[in-house]
Amino acid sequence: MNLTQLRAFHAVAREGSFTKAAERLCITQPAVTASITALEERHGVALFHRQGRSITLTEAGEKLAAVSQKLFTLEEEAAEVLAAEQGLQSGTLRICVGSPYSIAPVLARFREKFPGIDLRIIPGNYQVVRDLILSENADLAVQTEAEEHSLLGRQPLAQQRLVAICHRDFPLPAGPVSLKNLSGFDLVARETGSGTRRQVRNLCEEHGADLPIRITAESREAVFEMVANGLGYGLVLDAEMPQDRRVRVVPVIEAEKPLTDYLLYLKRRENLRLVRAFLALAKEA
């Protein structure tokens, strides 16, 4: 097996682009293309479907990508072992976050303490966070009310509560409201798969409430803008509240119990120096 060719394949599979793979490997795009072509011809198999500038993995490519991910993750771990005595002078830490609010202060402290470490922040909603950790495409992840998993460790990071938000002139009372009070109004909700929507659903199921969703927004910012323009009310985590005079916050009686944000990591990788250092700093914070 030619590892140079396999490395090129792994980079393309990971980046989804020959150009981005070349940038990642610091080589030319023709060199990447030549390595992939040689790998395919040598083994008589197509690894990518090519449609114009768009590429997707074939079934064989998907299987090889799973193997190459494990191989090059082990290579990274070997580099970690060799670099351990040098201290945290260089490296990259990949963190998947759906919401940056609870982890941003820890990121700031980490950068201050370890300025030589590059941070790669990967966006992802509740559905993809765990998969990114399990597939070793992220070193750490933040997930609200993360469920236990045999392969994953979890460390408490912060606590938040669900609150209602609405336009300042929206006809909701100023004091705490119950879910039944909200059922007569239009809810602006996050997309299916988001952690916030999952928490709203769990809260409604726990208390037997039915909140009609009239508008679905694909981002936190979109929810805020819809609410700020009076299209309905939203249910969000209190740490995510924007500084916007158009919007006011209304506590929800049934949501008094705080929700915990957890840092997730693979148990077998928790002793890697970057992961260990970040977990320790987050625990201090």
Task: Report what the structure shows.
The protein has 285 residues and is α/β, with parallel strands linked by helices. The protein is built from ten helices and twelve strands. The strands form three sheets. A five-stranded mixed sheet has the order 4-3-5-12-6, with helices on both faces. The longest helix has 25 residues. The protein is elongated, with a radius of gyration of 23 Å.
Describe the structure using short key phrases:
285 residues, alpha/beta, 5-stranded mixed sheet, 41% helix, 24% strand, elongated
List the helices and strands and how they pair.
Blueprint: H1 3-15, H2 18-25, H3 29-43, E1 48-51, E2 54-57, H4 59-83, E3 92-97, H5 104-113, E4 118-123, H6 126-134, E5 140-144, E6 152-160, E7 162-167, H7 179-182, E8 187-190, H8 195-207, E9 213-217, H9 220-228, E10 233-237, E11 247-251, E12 259-266, H10 273-284
Parallel strand pairs: 3-4, 3-5, 8-9, 8-10
Antiparallel strand pairs: 1-2, 5-12, 6-12, 7-10, 7-11
Helix pairs in contact: 1-2, 1-3, 1-4, 2-3
Largest sheet: 5 strands, mixed
Secondary-structure element string: HHHEEHEHEHEEEHEHEHEEEH
Radius of gyration: 23 Å
Beta strand count:
12
Strand fraction equals: 15-25%
Low-confidence stretches: none
Mean pLDDT across the residues is 89
Form type: elongated
As a percent range, the share of helical residues equals: 40-55%
Strand order in the largest sheet: 4-3-5-12-6
Distance between the termini: 46 Å
Number of helices: 10
Overall structural class, as computed from helix and strand content, comes to: alpha/beta
